[in-house]
Amino acid sequence: MSNDLINVISKNNPFQGRLVVRDQNVWGQGFPDVPSLNSHASDAVYDAVEKVRSGQRKVVGITITAERGLGKSHVIGRIRHQLQVDGSALFVYMSQCNNLNRIKAEFLTTLANSLKQIGSQGVSQWQYLATVLINEAFNKNYTPQQLINQFPGALVKNPKVVEVLRDNVLGIKRDLENPDIITAILWTLSPDPAYEVFAIRWLAGKSLPQVKADAMGLANVSADDKEAESFSTARQILNLIGDYKPIVVCFDEMETDHCNEIGYTGRQVTAIFAKDLCDKIKRGVLLTSIFPDHWINEVKRLGNADSVVDRIGEQVIELKYLNSDDVINLVSRWLEEFYQENALTPPHALYPFDEQKLRALGKERPIVRKVLKWCADNFKFPDDNGGIVLDIVEPAYNQQISALENTIQDYMEDKATLAQALRLGFSAVIGETIENVQIEKVVDIKVKAADRGYLDFKIVGNENGKDVKIGVAVLQESGGLFVQATLKRLTRYKDFDLTRGCLVRSKQINKGAAKAQKYLTELLSTELCGEWVLLKPEDIKPLLALHFVIKGRENDELSEDQIIDFIRKKRIAIDNYLIREILSDPSGQVPEDAIDEENESGNITLTEVGDVVNVGSDDLFQK
């Protein structure tokens, strides 16, 4: 046996920390796939896509039921990657909802983020949509990359080029209710990341700095009825896509430990919302994955269960348990990829496992996760009694850290997720003394209905014999009344039983927002001794990773105590800059490094025109 083989196996375990398919595996590099496993489920989706594409059906609803670990997300990942290869449909993936009372707004954010993922032509799904809209309006056949290459020069020659394109597209989309949707979609063709980021943020239902909104010709959405507006925007986007291709919208498990304000669980809220989508979109496949008992005991017991099930459960597909041959195929495929990546040739395809032991495991009709866990526990040389030993939480944590390298910007506008990550960090250091504050507990802030949604949590402790009650508000909205309203509440110490207010924010507050600036000055004054802690991706990333680990702990077969012990042992929270800064003596200063969105990049210079690629004498942007 070669020393290289011994060395690689002794230092690497391809199964450890990979028991669960996460969002990044659906969108990016997936796990090794055995297409024959539960092929009946993926084939049903491909068949539904073809029926919608060919006009035989308009909308098809499919529900996949299976217990935890049987491979629902593996199948969904397979479907996404196949659609990316063959380009037969666009894909949207939703696996969580932080606020069940606002699922329409959260879905719009998910839709916007899903469509920025790379599609079949090597560009984002948004850029594909922008291209087909332009091609139809001008009777052309441009590729997305051709239009992206032309965009900077065209914008310099004619600053109103997006407006011109929009007007032409609206000529063929006369039933579109909000023309700004076309404007924002067209801006995603800009190779300047600032324009693209702001366009997608607007499409996600978020407010832009007013200067940016004006420059891009977009109207900021009123916060008066964001749920209704979000659903209307999502419906219009999905129907634009439906004019060109089917879209697969997937709701994966949607497990939550809370209910909405009328008592519906996450699964029930999702099912009702999916049913509403079925009723409103032109063309598509609605794919829902759910545990069998939740399907029977929650969805099928809704007051309008018949109409919900008729739409999203037109086909109900059960996943199958593995047999001995399935186990052999699964393990050999994983090992094949592992040895190929390390340029090694093993003694046999299942090395270092014994085929008979794997076949015996298959006779138990196991779930996928049980097989992968058995492999993780037994990946060692046949004569080795040890194996590779890591902290049980560390592989899951490292996987989340790795995923956030590419996705963290998706969460920098997500108040709920950022606040939950911070709260977890403080919960992990209860009993510790940090920056002279002994932390006693982390609690919700008691508020009236009019004050909900602004302040995130309260840290209760003791500093030099005095009570400390720090109210924390994560505030990433660019502007508008929400910024003003949050700052106002951070200054109301008596109403919310606070001794200090702490704003956590990455970007500047518009100097022209007089009332917001007034409340900010009051918060940071020597009288209130409030604090503004600058939010940076590198500081929140470890806490976000831990948040996602603890959310997926059941799938990873981890306990909350194990995760908290890992956080303490690795000092991830106690040494975190944000945790320490929130607890430290307030500086009373506005952070110098806060992002100035109004002057952020997004101005294309004339020097970039020379880099524009010409696509022929009939250049669209010359028209």
Oligomer: single chain
- Average pLDDT for all residues: 90
Distance between the termini: 68 Å
Major sheet size, sense and barrel closure? 6 strands, mixed
Number of helices: 26
Instruction: Give the strand line-up of the largest sheet.
Output: 6-7-8-9-10-11
Please compute the radius of gyration using only Cα atoms.
Answer: 26 Å
How much helical structure, as a percent, in the residues? 40-55%
Alpha-beta content class: alpha/beta
The total count of strands amounts to 11
How much of the sequence lies in strands comes to: 5-15%
- Tell the overall outline: globular
Low-confidence stretches: 385-389, 602-618
In short:
The protein has 623 residues and is of the alpha/beta class.
Summarize the SSE layout with pairings:
Layout: H1 3-11, H2 23-27, H3 39-53, E1 59-65, H4 72-86, E2 90-94, H5 103-115, H6 125-138, H7 144-157, H8 161-170, H9 180-187, H10 193-203, H11 210-216, H12 226-242, E3 247-252, H13 266-280, E4 284-290, H14 292-297, H15 305-312, E5 315-318, H16 324-341, H17 355-362, H18 368-378, H19 394-411, H20 415-427, E6 433-434, E7 437-443, E8 457-463, E9 466-474, H21 481-490, H22 493-496, E10 500-505, H23 514-523, E11 531-534, H24 537-551, H25 560-570, H26 577-583
Parallel strand pairs: 1-4, 1-5, 2-3, 3-4, 9-10, 10-11
Antiparallel strand pairs: 6-7, 7-8, 8-9
Molecular structure report:
With 623 residues, the chain is α/β, with parallel strands linked by helices. It has helices spanning 3-11, 23-27, 39-53, 72-86, 103-115, 125-138, 144-157, 161-170, 180-187, 193-203, 210-216, 226-242, 266-280, 292-297, 305-312, 324-341, 355-362, 368-378, 394-411, 415-427, 481-490, 493-496, 514-523, 537-551, 560-570, 577-583, and strands spanning 59-65, 90-94, 247-252, 284-290, 315-318, 433-434, 437-443, 457-463, 466-474, 500-505, 531-534. The strands form 2 sheets. It has a 6-stranded mixed beta sheet, sandwiched between helices. It is globular, with a radius of gyration of 26 Å.
